[in-house]
Structures are given as structure tokens and as C-alpha cells.
User: Fold this.
Amino acid sequence: MKTINYILTGLGGQGILFMTKVLATTALNKGYNILGAETHGMAQRGGSVVSHLRVGDARSSLIRAGEADFLLSMEESEAYRYLPYLKKGGKLFANAASNAFPNKKTVNFLDKNGIESHAMDAAKIAMDLGSPRSTNLAMVAFYSAFDTGPLGADNLRATVDQMSPGPFKETNLKIFDACYDTGKKMAAR
Amino acid sequence: MKEEFLLGNGALAIGLLEAGCQIMTSYPGTPSSEILPEVVRFAKANKLNTAIEWSVNEKVAFDNAFAAAISGKRAACCMKMVGLNVAADSFMSAAYIGNIGGLVIISCDDPGPHSSQTEQDSRLMARLGKVPVMDPGSPGEARDMIKAAFDLSEEFQVPVLVRPAIRVCHARQNIKYDTLESNLTKADFKREPFRWASTPKFRFLQHKALNEKHLKISEKFDTFTPFNMSTREKGKSYPFGIVAGGVPTSVIQDMFEDVGRTDIPILKLGAPYPFPEKLAESFMDVCDKVLVIEETDTVIEYMLRDRHKTLGRLSGHVPMEGELVPEKIEGVINNALIGCGLSPLTTSDCGAEAMTLVGDLELPVRRPTLCPGCPHRASFYAIRKALPKAIFPSDIGCYTLGSNLGVVDTVLDMGAGITMASGFYNAYIQDNVQKPIVATIGDSTFFHSGTTGLMNAVYNDSRFILVILDNHITAMTGMQPSITQGDLVDGRKGNPIALETIVKGCGVEYLKVVDPFDTKNMIQTVKDAAKYVNDPGGIAVIISRHPCVIGFKDTAIPEKIKVSVSDDCDDCGFCHTRFECPALVRNEEDEKTEINSVLCAECGVCLQICPTNAIERV
Assistant:
């Protein structure tokens, strides 16, 4: 299989590492080899955090600029910051107000490179359903609704189920389902 | 057989235990910090008898492991690369003396740098100390190299350095592993003073013997597959070849496979020193030009010793600083190929157009900052409020980020907060100027390297304020326990040591303890200390004590205080420049500050700092 590359990004404290773990565990459960690169230490303290995840048989953990299939961002500004990683025909998913995203300066670039962009206010949905810290899972659910890539929505949901600690399980799954539905409606449009 | 999505540091831990490492010591430092806790986790799960400790510093860790190794046990110590500087005194002698049981040193490099003061290349330290070195390209390879390193170390009775770079340590990979077993070798130290305590005359002989070992290891490295190997075909010659080591090798192999390029041979040198002379020479002989790609210095490039054929950093083909990320390597190879009249690997602009676009978007600068509720922020606020015109030498830890708040003027190395305070005092007092100086250092850093400087300052009658920021933990590197609490790496209780005892033991007479969350009291304490420093004169130590909000989540903020910002906020910006709490966010439209309730730790300290009292209790 050709290696499928994910860039996951946001700010320190937004749970990018957990989000990476959900995708990676799902890939592992499906029998794929996985390789990732994480941010730790000083860089983790509130700064811009990026996580690389490669599903397939790669040797090196970093994704080369222009080679990412998917970019999932917890923050609008970070979605822009990591655009250089997306390949032609790649897909971008951002936690952002959908009417204002992407900004005008970026639209030409995305069009020229055939990059699809999708935005949902994941933070608001997670907050409304009682767990603003689960915005990371909300973004995984949103991505999964577009049915693209090797992981599969059902498998991702099962991983969230498996990895959520007891008291948070119900809320996390509720948020997952709500964001999946929102994504499905957008995908159908 | 189990399978896990392991950090490279976890893969190293598996390698250590598979190799039967019995004694394991370390001091935390990014990117090495997770190795030891992972060793603990696997040792517990398999009920191994491995002895594991967080040492007070890297030199202590090294000496500890060395003694075990000369008692016949397999021992390892791990650290970040600047930690090897701390252990350098021992490291430089260790290869001369040699060992009995395998001794492996893991020194993790940080090209970038991402979380370090330098981009130094541990392979150069290996050369300096005449210690054989291995340079893994992936977590899986790192695990295999550890086992090979122990075997090599025992075969030649010489310590071996393994230097994983950050992209190995903090890469994650699915790794399969089996049940692990204890190594039951007993300690059996044989007195041999001419070896273990040799005088200079014998050191000369040991040096000679070491050089002879090196010749043999170099020969072994000529055929040390899969760590050292070449993809050239016998009898074929090439216009261009690549020599690479460590992480760049993996990047290059992936890239060549992606684009399906097979006309350029690669010489992989995962074990570059002692240099595999014959392997390298046979590669050089069949290539017209050779491009060297290695992190972060010019170890292989120097050892190839051919000015005419070799392209690399010295010829200006490879950047002299910064991490060799894949797109950079892509650009370097493309340019070198074009320069040699060959077709490039790709026609990609290596992300240049997109990077220009992103640059033009003027995205917010995301600099690292202290966490919401961090006690260091409160300490820094009080220190600056009390003595705004002081010089602020500081140290290595989360609190280095006090530079954002204008309360960290210098950071040199572990312990330099105190030693440089002495130096500043001397420089000013020579001119008869009583310059206020406030040094800051964390509790773990104080134990690591602070006491020597404090004793020196007391002995030589330096005068400054030292604030020990005691958050009971080694926070920056991932919440390793501190000696003040006495918890050991495996969860058992050791013997805690009170900072007060050490400070007084260093001869300090003026000592106050405060909780920085009470900013008013801390401001006054710093002012009082400033008076003492000049009259009667001496070192004034303040222990600013409050647990880390991340490490002690449940207890660090006993009374949660919800706050909001009222209409009195006049957008003066004071809270942003002098307090910089991520939970205080400026609303660009309203031109007022707001509380981000998701981020807010509810510590309530900000209630004490707003000049217009616009921050209120809810």
C-alpha cells in the first residue's frame, strides 16, 4: 500500500497527541504499519503543535512538504500554517467557522492545487454537548464523515469508544455522533 | 507477542531490556526523558529485577552505570546531548579504562533545536572520548542497535555511545515484542588498580590499547550490516553517490523509493566511528561525486577526507544549522544533482510557494509560554514588581519562559543562574556599583548543578538574591519526580531532601519561604531581601514554593477561583506583557481582554495584578 500521510495540528494543550493516538490505534487495529512524529518539551508549552502520522511502510517519521494526504487542524490559524504539507489533491479539515474559512488569500492556492477544504465549528459542538476538551475527537468524527482514507468512520468511533475513560465515554461518543452527522450533511452537499 | 504504538524512546527501552541491561540511570532532558519511565513500565510488566534510577545529574548517572559495568553487569545511562557535556569528565576517561559488562550511553540529539540550547552532534563527543558510536534512523533500528551496542561493548571492553536524534526518540512506531527476562549476572568487581585507578603512565598504555581496539572495530564496521551498508552494485561505477547517517538515511531511502530512483547508490553509515575505512573507500572509488547528508555536524564528511569528490556542509551544499527536514533534504539532493549535470529527484519547489503564501498571511506568532495557573508566572510577576531594574540571570527549565515576562535575562547552562549572578556581582562591584541581581533556578536544576555555585558564592562573599522556584517536580521534561518529594522513578519512596537543609548547608544565613500565589507577600519578601543583600550584606535565598499545576493537578489549586473581566478593562495590555496567561485573551473587536474559560486554571492570581482592578471574582 502507498503510505497515507496525516498532519494533525493545533495549539499546546488541545489534545493533538490523543487525537494522533486515536488515528494510530485505528490503523494498528486494521493491521497497518504506522509511524508518527510528535512535539514534546519546550515546543509543547502553548506553542504551535504538529503531529505527523504515516500509515503504511515508511521508514522516516516526518512527512515531506507537499506529501500529506490529509491535514486536520484544531485551530484556523494552524490550518493555514501547515498548508505547505498538503499535496496536490489533498484534503483539509479545520475547526473553524465554516462561512469564514478559508480566507480569500488562500482560496486561489487551494483551487490551483485541487485541495478540498472543509470547516466545522467543532469547538462549539463539543462545548454545547458538555466537553469542550473533546474538540479533538469532534474533529476526528468530522473527518470520518467524508469517508476518505484507509481508517473508516466505524473503526474510528470504535477506537474512541475503546480509549475514552469511563466517565467521559458517553459524552465523547455523543460528540462523535453529532459531528459525524454534521460532516455527513456537508459531504452530501 | 505484543504490539504497541511505541515512542522511539519506548523502542530503546525494549532494546535495553532485551539486551539484559541490569542497571539503568538517567537525568531527564528532551528528547531523552521517556526512555527511563518506559524501562520501568516494561520491567514492571515482566517482573524484571532491573535497577533503575533518576540520578541527580548526568555525571552521577554515568559514574553509577560505569561502576556497575566494571563489576561485570550490563549497564546503561541515558541523557540529552547537553547532558553528555555534564558527564563529559567521566566520559572522556571511560574508553581508556574500558569495562567488563557492556556499557551503553544513550545521548539524544536535538537538531532544530526544538527544546535545547545547542544543536551539538554527540558523534563528535564520541570522537573526542574515543567511544564507538551508532546513529539509528528509526525507532525499530534504535532497538536493534542497543543490542548490537552491548555486544560490541563486551567484545572490545569499551563503552559504546548510541545517539538517537529527536526524530527517533519522538517518532512513534508499531513495535512487536516478546516476554522479557531478567539478566541474573552477579556483581563481581575484581580489584585491578593498574586498570581502574591507573596513573598517567598507564593511561598512555591504555590509550595505545584503545587505539588498537579502534582499528579492529573499524574493520568490524566495514561489514556491520544492516547498520552500515551500501546499495552500490559490484563492478559498476557512478557519476554520483550519497553517504548518509541516522535519520537522514531513512528520509533519503523513503524519498528514493517514492520517486522510483535506482541509479544513485547510497552508503548508509549507522555506525560511523571508528570509521569503516574500507567500506567508505570502496564506495568513494566508484563514485565521481559523493554528497554527504548527516545531522548535525560534519563527522562523516571530515572522515571521508576527499576535498575533490565530497559535497556537503563544507562545500556549501548542505545547511550548516537547523534540522534536515525531508523537504530540505529533497532540495539539497536536487541542487547537487543538477550541479553535477544529472536530473533532479523531483521537480517540486519543496513547498516554497506555499511557504511564501503562509508567510504573507501574517499568522499569530505562537511562542511557548507558561501554562495557565503556573506558579512560576506569579513568582516572576512579583520579582519584577519588586525590583524592576535588577539583572535577572536564570536557568534551564519551564521557567526559562520567564524571558517572555522580562524576568529572565540570561540562560547559559544548568546551574548558571547562580554562577552568573556571582559573575555579575563581581563585574559591577569592581566599579563600586551595588547592582541588584535576582537569580532564578528550579528545584530540580538546583539539585542538578546549583549547589556548587551557591557554595562558591557564599565562600567568595558574592551578594545577590537567589529565588529557588520549587514546584516539586521536573516539569519541562515531562513531570519527573524531584528530590524535594523523594519519589523514585518506579513509584517507590526514596529519601526526600529539603531545600532548606541544602541552602543552609551551603552557608546561606538569610532564607525565606513564600507561596508565590500571594503576590503581595512575595513582592515584600523580595524587597526585604534586597535590603539584606546590601546591609548587612550577603546572599539572600527565597524559596518560592507552590506545586506545578500540571504535575499536581488535584492539589496545586486547592481553592478554585472563577474570574471574569469587567467593563473597566481599558485595554492597557499590562496583563498581557507582564503576566502573559494564555487564559487572558484580547478580543480584537471589543478591544478588551476576556477570560478563556477552557484554558483558565482558576488560580485567581490575576485578581491581584490588573492595574484598573477590572479582573473580578465571579
Remarks:
- The first strand of chain B starts at residue 2 and ends at 7.
